[in-house]
Design brief:
single chain, mainly beta, 4-stranded antiparallel sheet, 1 helix, extended
Amino acid sequence: MRTWFRGGSPLGPPSHSSDWLAGLEAVTNCDIAIRPFRVDFDDVVFGLIDETTDDPYEGHGGPWAELLPQGLGFHEPWNGQYDT
């Protein structure tokens, strides 16, 4: 039986990848726009669901978006961090 893993090598990336990465510009963080969506397939919900509520006793008590089915929760300050 042979096992193969796609991705990085212990020896580092191939030279063509290094050349490609060296040509990329510096990272610039900025605001983005998103749109919630929902797809139901085989009784599983996929999507970015708006779960915003002002009720502190129900839900998360403020703006909140949930990525399903992974269950990643995004909230202010909208900096890319998430809750599980």
